[in-house]
């Protein structure tokens, strides 16, 4: 399993980083975890062909995590002339919210007849979903976003990857991340407690419960970026590649 951070920034572009978008490439599959508003730009920056992306998994429906999908879809329709199926899998209301977002950003686009098969799957919390050789299990976390927010545990190539999405500490992160090969965890602030977001100090206070084999922190504010060189922890960077 090869993992590349196409974007690891927060909603406000702290540090000049692209918004959340993680590319996962396995022996047989290639997909994205989240697709923030800047993701198509990031894909071009790092040489990712959108037609090779088979699936987009969404943790939650905030623009910095799913706002790139309208651009992705229109690029697939008019620029890259996609023919193969695209699966978008996310929380309940994904289909409705995507239609609303498409219409707000590009009036009339929500009525498009796509030239490629598009399948939108709304995930059920706690239920494992099989997408070919990829198994995705969502866990409800704590982040106000108009629909249930998820941490996603992903199994493929015999390895496990968990991404917390955006969330304050909640016990559901334990089954979502326990003993996983790689945990990608939000660490928005260093020790400042902000509702609906996870700070680094709280994450470290619970790391013995989670026991990931490897930890990479992401979605960092300027507060965290200013401290990143002093942290004894692996940090995400746009373009960073990890192999499991």
Please list the strands of the largest sheet in the order they lie side by side.
Answer: 6-5-4-3-2-1-14
CATH topology (fold) name: Metallo-beta-lactamase, Chain A
Distance between the termini: 5 Å
Shape: globular
Q: Whole-number radius of gyration?
A: 17 Å
Mean pLDDT: 97
**N-to-C order of helices and strands:** EEEHEHHEHEEEEEHEHHEHEE
Number of domains: 1
Q: Which residues sit in consecutive blocks of at least 5 with pLDDT less than 50?
A: none
Task: Just name the CATH architecture.
Answer: 4-Layer Sandwich
Specify the CATH homologous superfamily: Ribonuclease Z/Hydroxyacylglutathione hydrolase-like
Q: Percent helix among the residues? A: 10-25%
Output the CATH class name: Alpha Beta
